[in-house]
Structures are given as C-alpha cells and as structure tokens.
Design goal:
The complex is a heterodimer. Chain A contains ten helices and 19 strands. Chain A has helices at residues 14-35, 37-45, 67-72, 106-122, 140-152, 165-174, 184-196, 218-228, 341-352, 387-405, and strands spanning 86-92, 100-105, 130-133, 156-158, 179-182, 208-211, 231-236, 247-249, 256-258, 263-268, 281-288, 299-308, 320-327, 331-334, 337-340, 359-365, 370-378, 409-415, 424-425. Helices cover 31% and strands 25% of the residues of chain A. Chain B is an alpha/beta fold. Chain B has helices spanning 40-47, 70-76, 93-100, 102-106, 110-123, 125-129, 140-152, 170-185, 197-203, 221-226, 228-234, 239-243, and strands at 2-11, 14-24, 29-34, 55-60, 63-64, 78-81, 158-162, 189-194, 206-211, 214-220. In chain B, strands 6-7-8-3-9-10 form a six-stranded mixed β-sheet, sandwiched between helices. A four-stranded antiparallel β-sheet of chain B has the order 2-1-4-5, with helices on one face. In chain B, α3 runs parallel beside α7 (140-152). Classes of the chains: A alpha/beta, B alpha/beta. At the A-B interface, α1 of A face β1, β2, β9, β10 and α10 of B.
Chain lengths: 426, 247
Amino acid sequence: MADHEPMDAQRLDPAKRAQRQLELLQATLNRVHRAVPFYKDRFMENRTEPGEVESLKDIAKLPFTFRSHLADHYPYGLFAVPLRDIVRIHTAPGLGVHPVVSGYTRQDLSTWKEIVQRGLSASGLAATDILQICLDPGLANWGRDYKDAAEVLGASVIPLTSLSLEKQQMVLSDYKTSVLVTTPTFAAQLAAGLSSSGIHPNELALRSLILVGEPLSRDARTSLEETFGLTAWSQYGLSDVPGPAVAFECEEHEGMHVNEDHFLPEIVDPRTREPVAEGEEGELVLTTLTTRAFPLIRFATGDRMRFIQEPCKCGRTLRRVQWLPGRTDDTAVIRGVKVHHDQILSHVERVLGFVPERFKFRAVQDERASMLEVWMGVDDHLFSDEVKVLEGSVQAVSAALSQELGVPVCVRLKETSQMNGRAGWV
Amino acid sequence: MLEIRNLKCYYGRIRALSGVSLSVDQGEVVSLIGANGSGKSTLLTAISGLLPGWRGELLFEGESLAGLPPQEVVARGISMVPEGRLIFGALSVMDNLRLGAYLRIRKRDHFGVRQDLDKVLSIFPVLKERAGQDAGTLSGGEQQMLAIGRALMAKPRLLLLDEPSMGLAPKVVKQIFSTLSMLRDEGLTILVVEQNAQAALAVADRGYVLETGRMVLTGRAADLLEDEEVKRAYLGKDYAQFTEGRA
C-alpha cells in the first residue's frame, strides 16, 4: 500500500463517487444483514431489507443506530466478522454500566491509518515534523491512530502519555514540538499556562495545532493562532467507535471535508429524524462504507453540523461540513470526551446504590480547568452524621466517574433546599 | 466506462442476481469473484445481451444497454470470452479469428481486420504456428488464447472474460493472466469473472465479491487478497471454519 495516496481519490468526479458509494453501501448492508443479528432484526422491525436500498437517498429507509444500542450488545454483539479476524479490541465508556467494545481487523487498522494520514497530510504534516499528542485517556484510541498515521508519514511522534500540564509544556518547548494534536480546550489552557510559567510562545517550534474533539469557534481559532503564531486545523472524529479524522480541514480552512469514500454522511433533523434541506443544520448521521469489524448503519452522532454546498477551492470533491457548537442529545463534551447524562447516572447508582434525589452536573470549561462538576444534594439517603461516611461517598463517586469517563471530575455536596429539579445537566 | 446499478436477473422465476451494482473505469482491470452459482456468469451474460429481461441500470459509456441484442453490444465495443471458450472446433484457427471480426468484415474494414489479425498473432505466437489447424485439436490453454484472440478481433474497448482459468494448468493460467495485464497496459479495459480469486485479483486493480446474487465486498484488489474472509472463502482456505458461529 502506498504511503502517500494519490490525490485522485479525493478529487473523484462526484457522479463516480456516488456510484462507488452505492456499491460500498450495498455491500456493507448485505454483510451486516448476514453477520449481525442486531441489524437484521432492526431492518425486519422496520420492514425493510438491504435490497431496497437502490440509491444513496434510499438509506433514509433504514433505521438509525443510537449510542444506546452500542453498549446493549456488550461485548461482541455488533461485530461483523469472526473474533479471530479481530486484531484490536477497543473499549469506550457506554451510556450504561457496560462499556462499548469495538473491534478492528488488520484491514480496518490499515484503513484508519490511511484516513488519518489523509487528514494529517492535508494539514501539511511532513517527515521533518515533531508531532506531540496530548489527549485525555478518554480519547486513547485517537491517540493511537494519530501516532500510527504520523509514523507512516515519517514524522517523529511523541505519543499520548499521561503527563501533567507542566510536563506537557516542558516536552512542548524542550523537544521542539512542531505539530500538536490536542483539543481546543487543552490548547487554550496551554496558552494560559505558558504565559504564567514565563515561556514565550515565540520560543516554541510549534507551527501547527491539530484540534480535535470539539468544534473550533472562529474566535477560539483566531485567539490560538495569534497567541502561538501558527495555523490551527480542525478535525472531526468519533470517540466511542471507529476513530479520528472522519472529516478534516484543508488549506482553505472553510469547513471540513468528509472522507466520503469511507463514510456516508447525512444530516437529519434531531426531532423529526427526517433529512434536513441541503445546507440546513442538523445532526450528523454516519454510515461506514469500508469498515469490516464494526460497521455502523446510520449512526446518530449527536454532533451538530451542516453541509457546505459550494465546491471547495482546494479541488477536493469530498463534501464539506461545518461543525457547530452544542449537541443534539443529552451529552456534554469535556476535553473532547463525550459524557452522556445516562452514563453519569448509571455510574453513580452503581457506586451509591441509588441516585440522589437532587443531583446536577455540568461541564466546566475555562482557561484554568475543564472537568465534569457534579453536585449531589444531601438527602436522607446520602446523609450521614459521620463526616467520614459523607466524604467516602464523595470520593467513591468521584473516583468511579473519572475512572469510567476518562475526564477529571469534581464532586461537591449541596443542601437539597438550594437545588431544584430532577437529576440532569445544569 | 461501465456502470451497473441494482441489476436483477432471472432465469424463469428464479432470481440469480438481486440488485447488484458494479463499475469499471476506463483502463482498469476489475475482477468479480465468487463461488459456483453466485451469479458471476449471469452478470456477464446480461451485459453481453444474451440474457434479456434483466432489471436495473446497465450503462456503457453513459448509454443504456437495455434491450440491445448481442451483436449490438459487440458493435458498441464490448466483447466477451465465454466460459468454456466455445470455439468452433471444426473450423481452422484462422477462421475462428476472422469470425471474431464478423461485424467489421461486413463493414468492409479489411485493412483494420488485417492489422488486428497480425497483432493478435503477435500476442499469441502459438496461434500463428497453428493457423491452419482445426481449432478442436488445440490444447486447453491454446483454445483459451484463441477465444481471447477471437474476442479481440472485434476491436473491443471493454473485454469481458468468464472463467478464463477454468480447467487450465497453473502455468497456463499464469500465462493467460499476464496476457491480460499486457492488454490492460495497452489501454484495454477488462472485467474478468473468476473462481480462481488468487489469479484474478493478482492482476486486477479492484475487485468485487459476489455471494448468492448479492455483492458482499468491494475494494482494491490488493486489499481483497489480504482479506481474511476472502482468503478463507476463495483462496483455498477452509470454508467450514469460516462459517462456524461467532463467539
């Protein structure tokens, strides 16, 4: 396989691409229908079958796959190939007690490598670069995929390791990192941290920021680019399943190109579940076209996007999306890691044996810190006249949540009288 | 060059192809592999106009092939090398080749036919040696070369081959397929249907895997050769092991 793919695949004539996508889609549907009982049943419930998909638009006849379905089939229920073909098993937090387990064949891994390479090449990554990956443990699979792809391109990679902010700064400046893969939140913290630790951004060799996990606002981009004197590149991926760089920014920085030879993107109205008018915003829905081990059919991502209709000046014919802030579901994104309402509740219930009546949580994101903040109302269940017991509960919840979600967590107690409403996001 | 969408073919009431989509670009070699009875040959017979009554879309160079009789399909630039060669055993090698250019001879393109005859004989020197012999006396490999040569005499832009390796010794198979890659290098577009997945994928740019009338896989030929499922099902690995339940 070529290390550097020819640009042809990215500049394919749209009609030809549509033909290829239809071929890949039909083959994928035939495979999942044969090998994954979940999809076969879902198709049957919906009174449809793969043969009814005769055009790309016909995909709307098929049922959606929601995040909640993924963990329901713990551990291997959604695999479309025998286990002996699997060479990597990845675990991500699920919405309930069970995590989401996805698998990759050797072929899947090499496909991902190509997908990520394409995104990295578009951002100008070269063999002379030193690439540092700085992501939370909740995005560990992205860390691996970026590492693998950057190594193929010949860059010197400093892979993902858990280091404190200070240590990351030390590596960044002493190792002469030229490209940093991280989240917009962390990049902002880094900018703030540098100024307080007396390192001037000009002293850094950093020339590119590859920002993942969260949409990048125009203001945040300008501020980062000005602070560091570099170029920022936004990339979009899925953290619970497949991987990073599903869509990537080119040199025009006007939206992200979707890797349409591997994914079929749709944008639907999150309420009616109908496709939105071209160019309108809605929820991004993805169907995998080349994935072997863990195919996804109409996976509702919860991410808000809109298609950009105009062709891109860069010449790539891969359709572009604009990633908008906010979510279409009960999920918050903390340091690039998706945290769902039900996930928090199920882990708290597992630790305490109940969910406090008054229970709130929010994603704290500012320059100093970004974490999940949890407020538990001290009700009759939770109350104890021993401070130690109360502290124990706080610690147990905090430990369980940070362990399971892979993001920093801060748990606080509060008088129930000061809280209102049911459990949920503030 | 060739675009097929949702092709459904029937033998009486039996559906042999259930909505198959496939495409071949100009200058590509594409292999369609699958087990016996998966519908591979059906697809080729539908393209060549030998199996009317199909449904779906079949486009060659942007124009539909619907309703065209076989000779019209040949006139459009598509020639087929049928399964089992189907050469005329009682005719000489040379007459077999000339028959391939039947439509062109009728149009009095004698000069062009003469040129192509020389070219085919230079590709397959053995046919020159056997020019006057009855085709029926040729070996299997030579008959296959004759069948390919005859198809080339129609000056096709797209060559369809149905199981060219069938019944041939591995060495001859190798020879046939290296001829195909040579023809591709000269600009011919090729769609080859094969049970011998190894040989067919080795020379192809892309491949498709057909299973009981449905397409289950498509991709770069190099990737398909490495694919565990393809290896088990079509590259001589144990099929029973593959069908064992998942854990």
